[in-house]
Amino acid sequence: MDPFLQAAIEQARQGLSEGGLPIGSVLVRNGQIIGRGYNRRVQHGDPMAHAEIDCLSNAGRQSTYADTILYSTLMPCFLCSGAAVQFKIPKIVVGDSVNFPGGESRWGRSVDLLRSAGIEVIDLHDPVCIDMMKTFIAQHPTLWNEDIGI
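Now predict its structure.
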C-alpha cells in the first residue's frame, strides 16, 4: 500500500476514534509528510473542519504548493476541491470514490473542477478506504448526510 495513503487512513481512524467521520488527509512534499488532518466537524462543531482543510491548516503557511501532493481517503467535496484549486496543488491521490464520487451540483462534479484546473486526480480504489466509509455510512447515515450537505 502507498505509505502516504496509509498515513491518511491513520488520520481517518483517529477521527473515527473520537466520534467523528473517518476521513483523513496528508500533504506531501519531496516524499515527506508536511501536514496531516482529519475530519473534525463533529469534534469541533465546525462545518468547515473537513479533513483536507484540517490538513492544509496543519501544514501551515507554504510559499508554494506547486510541488505537493494531497492524499485523501475520500474523493474531495467542492469545499476541499476549491482549496486545492486555490493553492494550485498539482496532484490529488484518493482512496475512495465509490461511497462518495465527490461533490455534485448543477455546475458539475468536484472532480471535474479539479481536472479543469489542471489538477491530476488519481483514484486508488483502496478497499480499506472503501470499506471503512461504507461501514460508517451504514452505521451513521444521518451524520454522513449532514457532512455531505444532504
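The mean pLDDT is 95.
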